[in-house]
Design goal:
This protein is mostly beta strands and 405 residues long. It contains two helices and 27 strands. It is flat, with a radius of gyration of 40 Å. The N terminus is likely disordered.
């Protein structure tokens, strides 16, 4: 019996020892984990890559990590105090720029450092400095990115065809149609069919046409050592924002190809709308008295309207005032309320009159033709009634006197 009990005790001791060893080995488990020790405050701002190599003309996006390893949440201002000459750089998320970030305790946030070269940048090394600082100014952290720019490797263009245009940049509103004229010169020794291709922004319409013809083509036959002129018709997407949009056009055959870059500069759509809240374009007014008309002005285009003015076309001796007298800036989609004070002439006859209110914006205008009904003053109506009453009273008095006689 004693031997059995000793065996059980040894077995229990062995199990306890194994469990103790396991608990030490896996001390990261919730049961045995010690609370993580964090300093009171601490931040780190560092780029993922501290050195990159680019060719002339190339831009770069570098991930930027902002860490808060302190015990309290931090608001951290992010800046680029040192940007080399010839570069444009900013910190952003996937869609917009960032100047500050909130980071919880023992957490991190990911941002992006965007650096773009200017056209005249030379080969060499360029250093960008990124700085993070808490809003109270007590903690700072910085990092650097060294960008090595190498001379751009010139691509060897296939011989045999040239593609050129006299007007590579066209400018106009978003709802316009653009047409480029291109000259394709073949230096091959035999007649060749060239395929036509274009790379444009998404949902833009691009078509190729023969010169002075309205049919669309996808290839062009050119005789040996001759040239042909073709047109590239481009229609932007209706919702395209103002800006610059490159379009690459390429002609290719079995032994020759050429490419040219065209540029469309969209100024946006200029469209302005004006009207009344209830849609009525009529107004009642009294002779020589101000009548108030409230109407709205809305920018229905994609380009801002600046210095919007108001004009009026009215009968002689009438007055029209606007409050405000003009709108300095009207961003796309924004609406403003305007008051028009219309005063008919003192001698205006009773009846209907036409008054045109004109809203003049940038490259866009809107006219509203109002029908103003002029009514006589009610004072004269009461005076007329008083005169009639006096006349009737006089006649009654006269008849009474005559009857007594």
């Amino acid at each position: 019996m004693r031997i059995v009990r000793q065996g059980i005790s040894l077995t229990g001791l062995l199990i306890f020892t194994l469990f103790f060893i396991w608990s030490i080995h896996y001390s990261g488990s919730p049961v045995f984990a010690a609370e993580k020790e964090l300093p009171p405050r601490g931040i780190s701002v560092a780029p993922e890559y501290t050195g990159v190599i680019l060719q002339q003309g190339e831009d770069v996006n570098i991930d930027l990590t902002v860490i808060n390893f302190g015990r309290q949440a931090e608001d951290i201002d992010i800046s680029i105090p040192s940007v080399p000459k010839g570069w444009t750089a900013w910190i952003k998320t996937y869609s917009y720029g960032v100047t500050g970030v909130h980071v919880e305790s023992d957490k991190s946030k990911s941002l992006t450092l965007r650096a773009e070269q200017k056209e005249d940048i030379q080969p060499g090394k360029y250093t960008l400095t990124i700085k993070g600082q808490t809003t109270d100014g007590k903690l700072t952290s910085s990092g650097q990115v060294v960008i090595t720019v190498k001379e751009k490797v010139k691509e060897k263009k296939p011989k045999g065809v040239n593609l050129a245009t006299s007007y590579p940049v066209l400018q106009g509103p978003t709802d316009a149609k653009f047409e480029f004229s291109l000259e394709v010169e073949s230096k091959l020794e035999k007649d060749t069919i060239f395929n036509l291709m274009a790379q444009a922004p998404k949902d833009w319409e691009v078509n190729f046409k023969p010169a002075y013809e309205e049919k669309y083509i996808s290839s062009l036959r050119i005789k040996a050592d001759r040239s042909e002129t073709m047109a590239v018709a481009i229609k932007p997407h209706p919702l395209a924002q103002p800006g610059k949009y490159p379009i690459k056009v390429k002609v290719s055959a079995e032994k020759a190809e050429a490419e040219v870059e065209l540029m469309i500069v969209l100024t946006g759509i200029y469209k302005i709308e004006a009207g009344t809240a209830d849609g009525l374009l009529s107004l009642n007014a009294m002779q020589g008295k101000k009548a108030n008309l409230s109407f709205y002005v809305k920018n229905m285009g994609s380009a801002a309207q600046n210095n919007v003015k108001f004009l009026s076309f009215k009968p002689e001796n009438w007055k029209v005032e606007f409050k405000p007298e003009k709108i300095d800036a009207l961003p796309p989609g924004e609406l403003k309320q305007v008051e028009a004070l219309i005063t008919p002439a003192d001698q205006a006859l009773v009846g209907d009159y036409s008054v045109t209110l004109s809203v003049e914006g940038e490259k866009s205008s809107k006219n509203m033709e109002m029908r103003v009904t002029v009514r006589a003053s009610t004072v004269w109506g009461w005076i007329g009634i008083g005169i009639i009453v006096i006349v009737i009273a006089g006649l009654v008095t006269l008849f009474v006197k005559i009857g007594r006689r």
